[in-house]
Amino acid sequence: MTGASRGLGAAAAVAIAAEGAHLILVARTVGGLEETDDAVRRAGGSATLVPLDLKEGERIDQLGAALHSRFGKLDMLVAAAGALGTLTPVGHIRPEHWADVMAVNLTANWRLIRSLDPLLRLSDAGRAVFVSCPEATGRDAYWAGYAVSKGGLETLVRLYAAELANTRVRANIFDPGAMRTGLRAAAFPGEDPTMVPSPDDAANAMLPMLMAAYPHQGERVVFA
């Protein structure tokens, strides 16, 4: 579970914990991970905390080996971490800002697949869900960095899903729509947050996609 310290990642962790699962919680912020861990335990689950900056690709590469050594397999992957970048005209995006948003939203997810795919294949019914957004369609001006990274992610997941067609693993895309998160607050600073749905609602909508009985492959599920 990436992005597990807040927002949809934290909400999804609690929803999954209510099913009695043991979770691997990944995020940069130790304090946030500990808060999610407390909520997971209250919900009836347990967790292993992995403080990790997803821009540190080599550490993602090491994650799969570490999890295999300790757990032997992985039943679910929820890739919920995201970086907004800057909302500005395409020609005004600074190279370092472009690199950062691509590293978190696209490259890190490729490295997660590369590292964790063998563990998902060892599960009786591995499930992977990657979180996208409406901006992936490229319709909104000034969202270029974020939109391109999420559009690339959706293409990556569809290709990965096609490669999984003859396996027991399923990979899909989840678009939670508007949620009351820090990322949205940064993108829409004048918005009244009380008018925006909680991540808890989206997390509950995502939950069936992580169940063994979920049959779909490469699907884009929109929750709105």
From TrEMBL:
One term of GO molecular function: 2,3-dihydro-2,3-dihydroxybenzoate dehydrogenase activity
An annotated GO cellular component: membrane
Alphabetic keyword roster: Oxidoreductase
UniProt KW Oxidoreductase keyword: yes
Pfam families referenced in this protein's UniProt entry, alphabetically: adh_short (PF00106)
GO biological process, one term: siderophore biosynthetic process
Stored Gene3D superfamilies: NAD(P)-binding Rossmann-like Domain (3.40.50.720)
Family: Belongs to the short-chain dehydrogenases/reductases (SDR) family.
Full protein name: NAD(P)-dependent dehydrogenase (Short-subunit alcohol dehydrogenase family)
Lineage of producing organism: Bacteria, Pseudomonadati, Pseudomonadota, Alphaproteobacteria, Rhodospirillales
